[in-house]
Design brief:
Hypothetical protein af1432; Rossmann fold; 15 helices
Amino acid sequence: MAETLIDTSVLTADAPRQEIVVATVADLAAATRNTALLRDTSVAGVCHSAPDSRLGVLVVEDDCVSAELLANSLECFGYRVTVVEDGLEAFELVRTGDYRMVVSGWEMPEMTGAELCRRIRQRDWSRYVYFVLLTSHNELGHIVEGLKAGADDFLTKPFQVEELRARLRTGERVLSLESRDVMLFTLAKMTESRDIETGMHLERMREYCRILAEELSHWTEFKSTVDGEYIELLYLTSPLHDIGKVGIPDRVLLKPGRLTPEEFEIMKLHTTIGGETLAAATSQHQDARFLTMARDIAFTHHERFDGKGYPRGMAGRDIPLCGRVTAVADVYDALTTRRVYKPKFSHQRAREIIVEGAGTQFDPDVVKAFLRREQEITEVARSMDENSAAAMPVPAMKAAMA
């Protein structure tokens, strides 16, 4: 077990909340490594009493011979299978939320497979539905039509059973990553919900992180580090930067005014609490890259480029890049939103503060990236301002698939 840096005497009352966070992070890490956990309806310690917890696959096929072959094969693979003959009935079953995967024929009564897929994609489901189209036509036109409808994969008849199994394993991995991403953000929002002032802080901040990282990805010195996967992981994990606040007493976290020096020392512990919580999970799941980045962000987003930050006094490029990016995004959002201890600053004033902090509080390169993408950043701030009647969420980025 890692050596703790935390004075737990101030945190005892909040231990149950910390234990929930630790357990949830561990569950998420395990789920990332083992997609078979999708078949279990237990998520983050909340168990449902479903009589059959296997992953549900809906087979839509009007050819009874093909349907029986598919059903028998899928049941042997460990799936819970339901077979229907037409698209309309299939759509109604998908609406129940019991099926995460659909394997559909192309030509069927009432509604074709492509039409069924299109109709599913047109709805805003709470969870993603993975869709595999079966076709006897290996023609480009059919493939294009299916892709436009939103199909995830294709199988051309006749196919080998093991090929079907491999395609569905890919689907499980996609669904596992989606479940991970949703639960990570839910966990971050659960922590944030204790502080009602923060509003849409997490939503805005991860967009700022994405924009800054995208800019850096074009720079020669960052190309080997900041690729598409890095940007996606930063978008995914940056909302966990303040997860350690789950261990800060309410009397400090929710104080309606400025903190005393003693209270500020307690508040500063959130970086160590969050970092050590995620480090514990990382030590058990060393191949889970999202946990490593989340740990680094939690530990270092209050470090300063000049070495005068906390908790470790790291300086310069010894601070992980993800922490340096998150620091700018976090401060910009704090400056441009109202808090009980300060008014909302204009973008121009926030810009001045960030520029003044280049080389001392902030990495100069990240500040340059901020200035180069300033227009996009202000657009996110405007569109996600919860005090604006015109506020609307920026579309979420797709989860990393690697």
